Amino acid sequence: MYQELHQSVLLNESVAALVINKSGCYLDSTFGRGGHSRAILNQLNNEGRLYVIDCDPEALVFAEALAKEDDRVTVLVGKFESVIVDLLSQGKQFDGVFFDFGVSSPQLDDPQRGFSFQHNGPLDMRMNNQTGMSAADWINQANVNDMKTIFWQYGDEKNAARIAKAITIAREDKRIETTRDLVEVILKVNKPHPKEKKHPATRVFQAIRIFINDELGQIERTLPKALKLLKAGGRLVVISFHSLEDRIVKRFMRSMSKPESIGRRLPVVPDYLRPAVIKVVGKPTKACDIDTNVRARSAVMRVAEVL
């Protein structure tokens, strides 16, 4: 049933960094279509185990198929944040935890998911399209200030205020239901420019997707929990696809690789200060296959090891 629907980014590099014990237990927190999971399994022996997480119903079809093929695989359903909380409550420990953040190519390429401005379809953008507020629900009721803030904060859209205003005007005539509806409104403000490589709707679509799925909030809350799942010597491997994600990962790893700081004016140094928890392994790694996989051009991998 499995087919390679897209090229997994930094596949060899991430698996080499992650799997340091062939008999170990590993967690793929962002299964997608299972490219990284299958590569991890190829490095494990019969005693090795792999847990995989996803909340996308379509991705879970592939995850369940993999579990039927290979009894070393356990499928966990839900957002990675909530599932990792459950694993912590169960006292689970892993030799490695892997994250591949962002939206997957199959999600982008499916018009019915509404992630892409390049395909017309329902304006949805939910990672789990069976629950929660869709992008259309939000865009048709959000006030102009909230939209302006989201477009600027998560998309770095310089025309955020004008686009937000244009949306409020457009939805007075009819509800914005499809990706094409939204693109048409954006193009009234952001005119295509021959020197600009990005589509004029790129930043707004990115911003809405990040907001609807609470992507950055999940990352910030989950990384500290993921560390608690790791055994001593265990590896945390993270692939990010844009600067907002990577900034969170970089700052987190930097802070956890140093002892907890104290104020210079404290007369006595407390004995309960947190020591360094991890060491950063190697330098950030960027994808080198961008000629064959243009979506990998901004991917960055960072690796840390628990002390």
Topology:
Elements: H1 11-18, E1 25-28, H2 35-43, E2 49-54, H3 57-69, E3 73-77, H4 80-89, E4 94-100, H5 105-109, H6 135-139, H7 144-155, H8 160-173, H9 179-189, H10 202-212, H11 215-229, E5 230-240, H12 243-256, E6 278-280, E7 285-286, E8 300-306
Parallel strand pairs: 1-2, 1-4, 2-3, 4-5
Antiparallel strand pairs: 5-8, 6-8, 7-8
Report on this model:
It is a single chain. This protein has 307 residues and is of the alpha/beta class. Helices cover 41% and strands 15% of the residues. The chain has 12 helices and 8 strands. It has helices spanning 11-18, 35-43, 57-69, 80-89, 105-109, 135-139, 144-155, 160-173, 179-189, 202-212, 215-229, 243-256; strands at 25-28, 49-54, 73-77, 94-100, 230-240, 278-280, 285-286, 300-306. Strands 1, 2, 3, 4, 5, 6, 7 and 8 form an 8-stranded mixed β-sheet that branches. Strand 1, helix 2 and strand 2 form a beta-alpha-beta unit. The two termini are 40 Å apart.
Question: How would you summarize this macromolecular structure in one to three sentences?
Answer:
By secondary structure, the protein is α/β, with parallel strands linked by helices. It is built from 12 helices and 8 strands. Strands 1, 2, 3, 4, 5, 6, 7 and 8 form an 8-stranded mixed sheet that branches.
